[in-house]
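From the pipeline queue, job 12 of 40. The input is one protein chain; the requested action is below.

Action: predict structure.
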Amino acid sequence: MLNETYEYCMDLLENSRCKSLPFHSIEHTRDVFQYVKTIADYEGIYGSDLEPILIAALFHDTGMAEIYVNHEDQSVVYALEYLKKQNYPEDKTKTVIACILSTKMPQSPKTLAEKIICDADLYHLGIESYIFRNERLRAEWKQFFNIEYSEEEWYSLNVEFLEKQIFHTSYGKTVLENRKDLNCKMLKERHDNYKFES
């Protein structure tokens, strides 16, 4: 089931505009899929309890094929359509849908499953390549919203986001939080240097 769903979602992303998205790319979905495994392992979630979270990870950005803002709603449509054909259990389908919807910003996950996928979706905030990945998001916003930020505006916007954002799982709080704080500090320094130079 999981292998088939993986192939189905990769094919959906590959054959849509998602293929050319700088940030919400196929690579992002693959990463979130792996991050869910990493966090779930730390939280002690395995097997049949893990499966619907992984399925949600595969579908969570598929809605980008149709719409950008509130794409999660379209992702749910795709997931429901697919899972119904697979005769996937109703209780697990509900978990998949709840997990997808929980990734809407601002995040407000309630269950552990939702907390896992939310932290997986924002995992990049707590790794060394954050600055590089964040520039991809900047390029994507320019592409879709025609918004171009100055260096100072971009750093300021992201410092504010990082300061407000919280991780929800034990893994996020103990592993990702420290690096996120370092990334925030780095952005602040860049922001201050840019202000000083200009």
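Job complete. Residues 122-198 form one domain.
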